[in-house]
Amino acid sequence: MELKENDPTLSRLRSACDDLKKLVHTSVSVDASLEEADKKFAVMHESLSMASKRVAPLQTLSIANKALDTRINRAISPALTLLQSFKLSESLQRKLLELAAKLSNETVPKKRLKKLIKYVECVEKLNGSIDSISQECEPAIQKLQEVVEFLSRTKATDQYRTQQLKETLITLKALYETEVDAMKFDGLLDEALLNLQDEYESLLLQLRHEDIGQAEKDDVQEIVPTVLGSELEIEVLERISRTLASNDCMDICIDIYVKARYRRAAKALMRLNPDYLRTYTPEEIDEIEWENLETAISLWIQHFGLAVKSVLVSEKNLCSQVLRSIMEGVIWPECFTKIADKIMAVFFRFGEGVARCNKEPQKLFKLLDMFHSLEKLKPEFSETFDGEAGADICDRFRELEKLLVHASTKVFWEFGLQIEGNQDGLPPPQDGSVPKLVRYAINYLKYLASEIYSKPMAQVFRIEQSWKAGILSKPETDENLLRDAIANVMEAIQRNIESKRLRYKDKSLSNVFVMNTYWYVYMRTRNTELGKLLGDQYMKKQYKIVAEESAYLYQKQTWGALVRLLDKEELNRVNKDGIGAVARGKMEAFMKGFDEMLQKHRSLYNIPDADLRDQMGDATIKLVVPVYEEFLSTYSSVLQAKSYLSPKTVKGLLGQIFEGGNQQMGNGRSSLRQRDQRDYIGGRLSVSLENSRETKVGRPSVSLENSREMKGYSRSRSNSSAV
User: Fold this and answer.
1) Which end of the chain is more exposed for a tag (fewer CB within 10 A), N or C?
2) pTM, two decimal places
3) CB of 534 within 8 A of CB of 442?
């Protein structure tokens, strides 16, 4: 197919051919340019390679300089900090000297305390600064050591500079090893710490226990501990304690505190004049007179409570406030215990000496006083000495209580054994009166059963029972324990009385003795705590009935036998001619026996109890006088030859011997009055006996006044009047 000239297709083909020619021409031009550029790049590459070889040494030197710069900066930073610490230390030392000068010149107590606080603060800062120097010096030396080693290894600088750095390092090490320690232990800080120790001791000694003498006069139960020190003083002491402890002076601080406060507490107690505490061994205590020992024990009880409730409680509070910041409050209980231990040891050893000395009966009540005081004090004592630190003191407190319990029970039981064994070493009273041992024992038991001593004694018995039977045993009540124990002693008293009764040869006197003694026991215990404890029925059965039986036997054997001499049965069997002789014989025998009875009652028999004596007198008069009067009246016709005592005179004579007008019966009157009364009665007796003949029918051949018995009676009366 032929294409026409003006065909659009042909036009497009021609145009495309022209474009291809241009493209080929352009490609040839570009290729030539690229070849030219390639040549230029080759020249540049050769130039850069040569430059790189020339720059490489400079790059290595730059890296080394950066490493050296880093090490120098690391060494300079600690050194600068160290220099700042040295400057601060010098500044604080100058300030400390200024404060010390002001403190020494200040005399006003409150202002001085405030300056002392500033002084303590400055010491604390100086100590902190020196500690910083001590801590910062070693890192500075270490960093400088690294720089010297780097320069020596890399030779980044000349030998001269390296040598200078080495010398600086040596100097810094020497400073660290000598000067820093000197600053801390031999310099101004050490002097400041010594000054603080002196101020600490002085301030501790200034805190005194006030009104300790007045507290002794007050009730121990109402004692209030003394507040030691003001808030400012406590703050100063606490700051000084903390400062000393933080400067390796804790042992010195504790030693100063313990010695100073013990000295002050001991002086407070010495104001009470406890000289009795110097005697504390059992042997020495046994040599003390009882009155002095009794006083010493009373003072010990009072002073022991005062020491715990006032002095030591105050010391504990002070110790807690001053030393609480040391070791998180662990150390102050130990310090307080050291102070208290020295004081309490003196009280403990005296109490232990008393508990271990001879077990004499009169010591029981003081032993119970001591035990009761410890029991009342136990809550406060346990609170004061709580914790592990006070364990040893509490143990010794309990040991003292055990000793007192053991001593009290031993004294009581040995007292009963002494009574039963009749170890008083005395014969029965010759006049049938109450033995001193019985009087002592009854009053002893009455005192023991009183409200004051019954509770502590029962508590002691209960503790003793728990020791013997064990804690798990069923305990008796306090009342039963005390009643059983006292009943045992009462039985021992009875056995003692019965043993003495058997030693009388005169049965009438034996009955008088039993009557007097048992009546005394019954009357002295009636309506008392002792009687209530033992029971009224027990006392009546054991003592009153026995006394009444003995009184009956006395009447029967003494006056009943005399009355039987006037029995009429024999006269009824005699004829009229012999009645007079028999009647006169009976009357003579009666008068002789009556005279003997009068002499015995005046010189031998004794009924000390006035009420009992009156009762016996009335009973005797009722027994003797009616029979005598009846006999005299019945046989008056055959008794005319002699004069006999009138019934009124017999009644008067009987009344006199039971009125207590003689030495044996009149124990309640003064000696002068007894003598006057005896002289008066003796004279009256002589007159009445002589003049009574006029009232009697008949006259006996031998006068009663002139009889052998009456002469003996008169001599005994005159001798007693002359005493």
Assistant:
1) N
2) 0.72
3) no
